[in-house]
Amino acid sequence: MKSSKGKGFLGLLAILFSIGLFGYFGYDTMDDIKLGLDLEGGVSITYQADKADPSAEDMSDTVYKLQQRAQGYSTEAEVYQEGSNRINIDIPGESDANRILAELGKPGSLSFMDEQGNVILTGDQVKSAKAGIIDKNGIRENVVSLTLTDEGSQKFAEATEANIGKPIYIIYDNAIKSAPMVNTAITGGECYIEGMRDYEEAENLAATIRIGSLSLELEELRSNVVGAKLGQEAISTSLQAAAAGFIIVVMFMVAAYRIPGLASALALCLYVGLEIILLSAFEVTLTLPGIAGIILSIGMAVDANVIIFTRIKEEIGVGKTVKSAIKTGFAKALSAIIDGNVTTLIAAVVLFWRGSGTVKGFASTLAIGIILSMFTALFVTKGALYALYAAGFQDVKFYGVRKDVKVTNFLGKRKVFFTVSAAAVVIGWVFMGMGASSGKGALNYGMDFKGGTSTNVTFNEDMSLEDISSNVVPVVEKITGDSQVQTQKVTGTTEVIIKTKTLNVDQRQALNDALVEQFGVDADKITAESISGAVSNEMKQDALVAVVISTICMLIYIWFRFKDIRFAASAVLALVHDVMVVLTCYAVAKWPVGSTFIACMLTIVGYSINATIVIFDRIRENLQTKSHKEDLAALVNRSISETFTRSINTSVTTFIMVLVLFILGVSSIREFALPLMAGIIFGGYSSICVTGALWYVLTMKKKEVKAE
């Protein structure tokens, strides 16, 4: 007995040590986590090449050119290609987007000059420039090979003949990039530049020369500027929300499940530390939606523990010892945990694939959270529970007992449930139809989905809606030429959001100047986001395609795992139901449909399927032990009733995390959290009231067909 207790205390010490160790490293690596511009502050720009299908070399050279220029603003600037013809630029710490936009997109001026400053060649007279290696007297030398146009060949021949033994300066953007010596007159239109230290230097010089001759023009698709102060406030409030939500969830788990709840609390503490370390290790760029993904994944991490603990209570209820119940509980919960998390992971993977920017960041944090939740539930919680048991917590009262479950006749009310669900979907279609017919759009599409420019202005004093309409709006209309200016106050602040049609750089600068001159606004407190209609249409398509792809993948997985298409079909129908009901909320409440809409809908899909899997897993298990006397309806009702407590508790814990996020988060987070809360409610409703009934109806229809 003493030996057992000793092992238990050692196990607890090992877990506490791991929590402390990973917590320390997590805290130590927090500063290494890359922050998105919505947290750090700065300018983000997306360009698109004017050519539909530019060459890979042209795109690479353009990225290189923009990288060189962007680093002039910040050494931490990032420039990367997206797709075949788009380039993203992130410049932290900057706030003057208009100036950067005006400068970045200008083509660089390339020229070849002699010592007297006479221009020998211009960039358009160079056909190609390539890095290479030549053999010179048995020595390999890095060079840049040049091919000139006919006009350039003639000019270069004359210039090199007149400048033998003298340098020719290669100048890009008023900076000397190279000064090779002329050894002989070059008359064939081809030559090479020697003296490169290594191949990388040769490649960089070749790229610089090619850039100067680029015909590739860039079009601004999207730009965004976020003040550093706003970013810091977002981090602060999100961390507060995470801490508050975490504490509430831990208290709920301990109150509901006693010693198992304490074990889950230890596992969740380790989970948080590991999450931070992995974010740093995988160099995930943390954004506001990414923080939401972390907080949401903490809520969902509880689900696996709830499934296990419910099973343990059931096993104790049928007369097993606590130790045996723990072992059996984990074994019986395994399939539901794996299937539920894998299906949710499918949504995260599709989101990462189809999303971009902040949406992709959300998918990354959600995927990491899902994987960690399985690990901590199946290994850490299990270890902590066995350690607590060995340490002396062996009495049944520490674990709770669940004896006979009161079976509710859910199927008897299926017509009511189906009617309510159908009515909710129809109401949504009606409101979307009314919106479309009025010309306002089926949904309240935000700027991300319809294009435009959003200017956030922090005034020196609080302004009423009447003051904004009478004083600010006319100024905006005069400068922008937009007669449909929309304004919105940010509650609790002096900030006003001004939404207009898409403005060019000059119009944005004129608007900023007017706000400063006429209202005394601090220029640093003006931020803006602009997006073109082309990107907006793509986002609509991405949202639809992402939901369709994830749904199909889930259908295939469930069909494979349950070996019954009726399980998959009913699960997918329930998913469609959840999506449509949440769309009804968007249509009726006029919630803005923005960049996080895709993430929100796919998260709802993933959450809903996770809840459904648990019920289906119990139906499958009960079918294997079904008595001849029990009919199918009674079995389904029993399966739903047995998992009812789990469904409610998981919904409560996840809802708590998102609710705290909604209460404490910044406005952009609230726009994400509000529909997510609706999705959690309706996802829980559909898994309990709709999904099992759908499976039953499909099964009975099949039997009727066979009987005929």
Describe this structure in words.
The protein is of the alpha+beta class and 708 residues long. The chain folds into five domains: 2-35 and 232-398, Up-down Bundle (Multidrug efflux transporter AcrB transmembrane fold), CATH 1.20.1640; 43-106, 2-Layer Sandwich (Alpha-Beta Plaits); 110-212, Gyrase A, domain 2 (2-Layer Sandwich), CATH 3.30.1360; 411-429 and 535-707, Up-down Bundle (Multidrug efflux transporter AcrB transmembrane fold), CATH 1.20.1640.10; 452-531, Alpha-Beta Plaits (2-Layer Sandwich), CATH 3.30.70. The protein contains 21 helices and 15 strands. It has helices at residues 2-29, 37-40, 56-70, 97-104, 150-162, 199-212, 228-257, 259-281, 288-317, 322-354, 358-390, 414-437, 447-450, 465-480, 505-519, 533-562, 565-589, 597-624, 632-642, 644-664, 667-707, and strands spanning 42-49, 78-82, 86-92, 110-113, 119-122, 126-136, 139-148, 169-172, 175-178, 190-193, 218-226, 452-458, 486-489, 495-500, 526-531. The strands form three sheets. An eight-stranded antiparallel beta sheet has the order 2-3-1-11-15-12-14-13. A four-stranded antiparallel beta sheet has the order 5-4-8-9. Strands 6-7-10 form a three-stranded antiparallel beta sheet. α7 (228-257) runs parallel beside α9, α16 packs antiparallel against α17 (565-589) and α19 (632-642) runs antiparallel to α21 (667-707). The chain is elongated. The mean pLDDT is 83.
Mean residue pLDDT: 83
Task: Report the CATH C-level class of the largest domain.
Answer: Mainly Alpha
CATH topology-level fold name of the largest domain:
Multidrug efflux transporter AcrB transmembrane fold
- Across the major sheet, the strand order is 2-3-1-11-15-12-14-13
In CATH, the architecture of the largest domain is Up-down Bundle
Total of domains:
5
